[in-house]
Fold these 4 entries.
Entry 1:
Amino acid sequence: MALDHPGTLSGSLVTLDPLSLDHLEGLAAASSDGELWKLWYTTIPAPDEMETEIRRRLRLQDAGSMLPFTARRTDTGAIIGMTTFMNIDALTPRVEIGSTWNAASAQGTGTNPESKLLMLQHAFEVWGCSAVEFRTDHNNHQSRAAIARLGAKQDGILRAHLRPAAGYQRDTVVFSITEPEWAGVRLGLEHRLAKRLAA
């Protein structure tokens, strides 16, 4: 089964569009919001590196290993970040949701959990995935907490897994949601978003 790009995924708070070079200016502005590229425990492109990053993700899409999105607010259309399906295993099938970042002003607004709901729904209900994986740096406590709040369970830690910077070996924390867990995870995410929309 081929896991093709699903196209645009739309929610009440966030819309995920297929990544395009047309998004360059908006993504550079989103990266500037909070100077996210200065965070040492994650890899977020600086504004002047954004075109290179977009082209990298599009090359990986052409190679069949990544399906990238640009995230924007549904109400204003403002671009707020990026996310992807990656490490695509079409045989199992199984995917990772990762390479995600959001502008500082978008954090805590509900756009991230809704983007995960949209992507998880597609992975489990359209592609029939057996599991969806999430990975993050052991030192990225904000990301680890956010993944756990989705309902994902920690599978383990890959020690000395990557070298993202000179002299630094990253321990990668691996989480996943399996197909039997999806119904409960979906209910939890829908409840979180309904409370936010009602506020």
Note: Residues 9-198 form a domain with the Aminopeptidase fold (CATH 3.40.630.30).
Entry 2:
Amino acid sequence: MPELLETRVETCYQQAEAFFKRPFARPQVSFKLRGQKAGVAHLDENLLRFNLQLYRDNQEDFLRQTVAHEVAHLVAHQLFGGSIQPHGEEWQLIMRGVYELPPNRCHNYEVQRRTATRYIYQCPCPQSDFPFSAQRHKLVRQGRRYLCRRCRQILVYSGETRVE
């Protein structure tokens, strides 16, 4: 599946080269992005990272809009340097002029939230439940202490967990 995505990256670069009549250094492309972001351009590393799950779920729009969006960041950086705004007029010029696409800052893809285990901590206050992340729970087990903001007592693990 990433072959189509890599082909689209190359097509975007060829369009930019034809438009600006100059060559552009090709980036390294990674598919190890997770979470809510569809793509990220690392300007100084000349690296593009894409979210394969969002690509699979939104392939047509992703290829058309998201890939061009991220390539435009790298092209703008190579043309104008590092002092431009990420979604400023230079980037917008490339989106509109080179790719003939709207310069949308964000995608509207539906993102599946991961389930997370929460560790329930309590204090003497009535109806006190403090759901801690696994990372915070680990810190408590290593000796860190957290206090209730109302009663100033140390929060204690109740032994309960819940999945959110």
Note: The first strand starts at residue 28 and ends at 30.
Entry 3:
Amino acid sequence: MQPKALLSFVVLAGSAAAKTVFSAISVNGVDQGHGVGVRVPSSNNAITDVTSNNIICNTGFVQPVSTAVIPVKGGDKITAQFHHYSAGYLGPDPSDPVDPTNKGPVLAYLAAVPSATQSTVTGLKWFKIGEIGYNGSQWGSDILFINGGNVTFTIPPCIASGQYLFRAEAIALQAATSYPGAQFYMSCAQLSIEGSPSPKSPSTVSFPGAYTPSSPGIVTSLFGLSSYTTPGPSVFTC
């Protein structure tokens, strides 16, 4: 996947939905294949209700859902690959991986699970392993666009070995001046992590619950914005 230059664009009244899908991963630069080990939603429509179970891993997955579990080690670089459609990259598209007029953060979480292929995702305990918010001039979504849909996070080297779900999420804020308005795009990938023999226990949150309609970063205006607080917990560090 080749990085692409930012395109010039005309901002139309009533900005379109961001519409993006996390549908593949690479580990240390090695592409695992489209949909391999990832629960890919069949629609690129946004989740807007932060109280819904759909905020966990999305809904309406492409069938059959992959049964692959991707082996990784603590310290590995895992790249979430986003594209405009569930099928992945389909050719030149000014809105691939996301419409460049849409702005917002990109975040990543992990949750330990008995089995990475289990269908049940409610009741899990999630910890944030990375976020790209707003630095005053550039959003996580800008990085996503410039990198052709790729955003990379590091698996913490100090977590316990076991099976995990990896939740990568892009949030679009162009309609977030009231609730519901923010648009959430996420999927979950299935990982088996070789961690530390002396692991740390991160503080965790639940989905739904980690975000509320009044949480910082959920209702915001992009106009005249000088700083932005990314929703959810702090990033876990070793």
Note: The radius of gyration is 17 Å.
Entry 4:
Amino acid sequence: MKMKTPSRIGVISDTHNLVRPEALAHLAGCEAIIHAGDICGQPVLDALARIAPVNAVRGNNDTGDWAASLRTHEIVTVQQTKILVVHDIADIKSDPREDGIGVVITGHSHKPLIDTRDGVLYLNPGSAGPRRFRLPVTAAILLIDGAHAEASLHRLIE
């Protein structure tokens, strides 16, 4: 019997209308991409969609007709793992555990973070867009194997 291999999900946020070649290279080979908001233009989503199907949420800088169809909260299920995607962690109003969420993906702060709280994996891939302050330019990979998820951060530029 063939075992299912882990799903490789690319996670990116806060691109602010910049699609770096390093980000595209990092996401190559992913079976799906999650963008946690502050996309700032449809061409960003189009570029990502050439790599893999994209799930995206609207960030505070995503305005205009192109962003009207984006939701502020999205739940994505990969294998047996429910993923809550929201731009700003402050917009989460309930306990993710009670909703059966295994992973919470956020953006907004531009600060990369991987943390586990009460059995829920919290991932902020940081910002893949223009450098802000002294924060690194990063994206992430989420590996999901059944109900188990693990994340890794990748610095896109030095």
Note: Strands lie at 7-12, 32-35, 54-56, 73-78, 81-86, 103-105, 113-117, 120-124, 137-145, 148-157.
